[in-house]
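[job 4471] stage=fold_predict status=RUNNING
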Amino acid sequence: MNWINSVVRPKIQRVFNKRQVPDNLWRKCPSCGEMIFHRDLVAALNVCPNCDHHMRLGTKERFDSLFDNADYQIVQVDPVPVDPLKFRDQKRYPERLKEARAKTGRDDAVTVAHGALDGVETVIAIEDFSFMGGSLGMAAGEALIKGAETAIEKRAPYVLFTAAGGARMQEGILSLMQMPRVTVAVQFLREAGLPFIVVLTDPTTGGVLASYAMLGDVQIAEPKALIGFSGRRVIEQTIREKLPDDFQSAEFQFEHGMIDMIAHRHKLRETLSRVIRLMTHRPRGKAQLTANLPATTQPEAGAEKA
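[job 4471] inference complete, writing structure tokens
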């Protein structure tokens, strides 16, 4: 064997066969620009440890952080027509759905689950903004209504996490009809005497905000979440005035009485537990409250006594 095969070729192969480092090990905070190691970010529930900016959180991660021991059951939703209007823009609507499903691993924007939250059977629905902007379509509306029916069946409180850009244009009037349908489902919850709690996350806008997202018995928001109907530019051009810098933020809405409270994501589970127990007249449970929190947020030994 000559020196080319024994020396030169192995060196060339080592150069081109170097292990590629994944490009998703670090995430840049969109608020402060801090680079965060992906495992640290996951442990912190996508909250920046430097500036406390709340990044968007996936459906599974949110379920895991809320239910006791991350134990819950997904509620199955009846299928709806895939493309009732045969809509086509740059792509056919079924193609867009296929891409969104492949990207998120979910059938549509809303997922409903039930399980114990601090020992109380609770139904939780989550709108996922990564699925076509969390837009409200027939499948999403059916899921929200199924969540209300499940809550009534189980005599359980219903918690809704909103994150949407409004109605889904590919379904036209059929999408808009989901808003009154969900509103009626909320009324059924009220008649059954069951709590309906809404958690507004970033962003909650458009027709979703104008309908069922503002019908909660208690309105909670995550810090600095975008909450509003129309965009800033549209409003400024309409009223011909300059809007405040924090306009449509959770803090602005709280100051003006649109929401009841702002809860940090690390304390959201405890907040929901307290609200649910107050509304259902159940004694507070202490054993489960911190079970799913990131390690950095767990109270130190003896802190409760202090």
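[job 4471] summary: DSSP finds eleven helices and ten strands in the chain.
[job 4471] exit 0
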